[in-house]
Design brief:
alpha+beta, single chain, 86 residues, two-stranded antiparallel ribbon, two-stranded antiparallel sheet
Length: 86
Amino acid sequence: MIQNVSLLRGTSTVDVYPIKGNEDTIGDGLAGVPNEREAVRQVINTRRTVIEDPVHLVQGGVSIVCRIPVLASPKGKLFGSGEYWG
């Protein structure tokens, strides 16, 4: 069951659903969080999905986290063929 979805721009959280109870995560820079740094680098460098377990969440609790890279697409190019977006 998915309980939370976060959107990052670069390595900072810009949106989260649901917002209630997760307000403190907005603006977090995950690359600066020691227990998150390696997984964030792995996603950026490999451009592949990374699943982590267990992750201690900023807002409290422990969870399984699935990190899916979003890649920009230059005009006229294949979807997801560009630079890392978030």
